[in-house]
Amino acid sequence: MAALSAWFWNERFWLPHNVTWADLADPAPGVEYPKAGHLLSALPLALGIFAVRIVFERCIAGPCASILHIQTELSRRAQPNAVLEKVFTSITRSPDSRHLEGLSKQLDWDVRKVQRWFRHRRNQDKPSTRTKFCESMWRFTFYLYIFTYGIRFLWQSPWMWDTRHCWYNYPYQVTLKMLPSSDFFLHISRVFLQDFLIMFVHHLATISLISFSYVNNMLRVGSLVMCVHDTSDFLLEAAKLANYAKYQRLCDFLFVVFSMIFFGTRLIIFPFWILNTTLFESWEIIGPYPSWWLFNFLLLVLQVLHILWSYLIAGIAFKAIMRGKVSKDDRSDIESSSEEETETSPKERLKTASSRGENGTNGHFGSKPWSQNHNNW
């Protein structure tokens, strides 16, 4: 273990030239530099945040949902069937025609009946609109508080206005401690989504980057990176809250504002402000070293993701502007099939669509809902 630790914490990789861990371990009286062990203090804080979230959703978000008449939808449950349940949990949640025909013969069921069973079974796992409203209200409150706190701190910091201060006298810089693990517990506590794995990997990579910058004492530039990314998060959650409450015009307006700020921060400020200082100003002031290359590589990967997400958001925002509406979160949609539609008359379908709000107020528009894409940001 000692050999493994010595290899992992190799000074030639982590620190600039002519700097050792011993230089950072014994600072002047009253001065303390970041250490990897400090990250462990984030764990009890994260558990505390998780407890606060539970109380918030039950005592604040829940009553707000009731005031807005957002209730838990009652969806039709699939009848118990051991064979189909095993296929659903072990093989596929959406069987293709070959699987459907095989199950139809095995159970002596009509193919449409098998399709209907899988549709009802998928709906059982979807969180209700009320659950998603409470979840989004918590994230809105948390993100807004974190962003406001960060802006108040950075407004008085010299590196906010001159990014070269991120590298002056580096790494001998005294800054506030950061607790990235609390962000990890915040995201892991979300309700399970269909794209959970992608979301989890993304957040894990982000937290690794934050932890990396903490160990390297790159807290100044790290705080700028976090500020840029926190700018638009609470606006997206606000748009989702408006959508769940069926204030569609407010939802559309907030989403367009979110899109504009997202493009400005991720495609302009991040590359021309953040990457400029991490790539060029740091090279000029402290020079490159092995972990410097890794740090900038991760930031460049993040920028590639920004471009990809901006393309997706632009398409959704364009559809919202052209159609005057934004797709709702399909996690609350009750799936319908063309087979069932043929079994009802046009008059009945019109009545059903009206009762579901599919007149443009709370209907499903577009091929992929905007609120699902946010999980990758």
TrEMBL record:
Keywords, in A-Z order: DNA-binding, Endoplasmic reticulum, Homeobox, Lipid biosynthesis, Lipid metabolism, Membrane, Nucleus, Transferase, Transmembrane, Transmembrane helix
Primary localization class, coarse: endoplasmic reticulum
GO MF term (any one): DNA binding
Pathways per UniProt: Sphingolipid metabolism; Lipid metabolism; sphingolipid metabolism
A GO biological-process term: ceramide biosynthetic process
Domain Homeobox, residue spans: 84-128
Database matches in CDD domains: homeodomain
Positions of transmembrane segments: 36-56, 136-155, 196-215, 253-274, 294-318
Keyword Transmembrane: yes
DNA-binding region, residue range(s): 86-129
Biased segments, Polar residues type: 352-377
Membrane-protein topology: Multi-pass membrane protein
Keyword Coiled coil: no
Signal peptide residue numbers: none
Any one GO CC term of the record: nucleus
Catalytic activity: sphinganine + octadecanoyl-CoA = N-(octadecanoyl)-sphinganine + CoA + H(+)
Name of the protein: Ceramide synthase 5-like
